[in-house]
Amino acid sequence: MSKRLFIFDTTLRDGEQVPGCQLNTVEKIEVAKQLEGLGVDVIEAGFPISSPGDFKSVIEISKAVTWPVICALSRAVEKDIDAAAEALKFAKRKRIHTGIGTSEYHIKYKFNSTPDEILERAVSAVKYAKRYVEDVEFYAEDAGRTDNEYLARVVEAVIKAGATVVNIPDTTGYCLPAEYGNKIKYLMEHVDGIDKAVISTHCHNDLGMATANTMEGVLNGARQVEVTINGIGERAGNTALEEIAMICKCHHDLDITTNINTQKIGGISRTVSSLMNMPVQPNKAIVGRNAFAHSSGIHQDGVLKNAQTYEIINPKDVGYSDDQIVLTARSGRAALKHRLALNGVTLDEDKLDKVYQDFLRLADKKKEVTDDDVLILAGADRTASHHIRLDYLQVTSGVGIRSVASIGLDIAGEKFEAAATGNGPVDAAIKALKKIINRKMVLKEFTIQAINKGSDDVGKVHMQVEYNGHVYYGFGANTDIVAASVEAYIDAINKFHNK
Ligand code: KIV
Ligand code: ZN
Question: How distant, in Å, are the alpha carbons of 146, 223, 248 from that of 149?
């Protein structure tokens, strides 16, 4: 009989922890609903004690989602567990995820403690969480670098205390695949009562081995995998959900099944990338723009004769349909609605009206409006709460002349104007902007990305602006890249302007 693998998605917790990827509650609900539609078994919805925003999001996601288990993270600390339990009160199926660092590094340097004391704290946390919920998951942080014998003692003790799931994170992404697989095997063979709990993998990608490690974990007995859409997450990210789902689908020889409706992968990948302002690298497995593009003549010839010559995945299996409805200035609301639905986005009629008006404005400037464009438009009201807005921007630039920009800003209803010259149009526009917002801000990172290929394409700009010792992230999207750059700068400023 085939083995069922549980998919635990942590896009909204480990993924959302990434600077610049923060979502508001409405956006988190949108992602959670799409995760439910995708068929994940567990949604880690947040870390409630960490901020009022996270607390509220766990509450709202619990109300909005029906089938998946909703999980809330906590440290092995009573007040964290209280907050997690409170935030989960509306969840139909709920889980508290609690844990503590078990490696020598964590025990000695983070906790200034001893292995026995940490083991006691682990057991107490599980027992405390059990007062609130039946389903308690324990994580042994930095298990990847934890001595196997000690790890087995901890795992045995927390299962005895009532943990239903035990998570073995390779927190630093250090393990080699065989090493991680052997760790899981060791636990399966040495822990009394291991059959009373599900063993989970949680692998980070610091050395590019997250997916390989996760699969080794699964092949050695893990039945749950902790993953994120597009592999986003702390530092180099987590194991990508789409990779594990497609490995299980392609490798019939493994006889492992998941509940994932793989045809929804493309849509949710684009939604997450768009809402989190996190571009997907073009050659990313499964969801990258080039994942199914055959460019060499030999490959094209082979694929035309029989797709299986160079394709192990049918693009339709991951939702890359060859839907032929092209969006242009003549497309109606129904076509836009259809395109958004293909990307997993449903909007109420009022929001759809607004997005449609923005769409028409964009379609006037571009021959063809792409999926990425409409997803940006659908997420565009994230600037609605902005205190500072761009009123107008005029730039003169060229070869052999200095660029000149004049800018108009609306700051909480008051109008401001300034002009400046610069080394190029973006430099001039930002100098003009800084004449109005006169603070010590330093541009730390600036990325411009064209979504598709045409010269009429929308450019996306990601920026990091340092102010007062903190780095703030900004995003802008416009067919005019100077305007997109200024929008990104303003987006970043809005994050600290009122502080
Ligand atoms: O990477 C990690 O160890 C984690 C735990 C909090 C589960 O994210
Ligand atoms: Zn993690």
Answer: 9, 21, 31
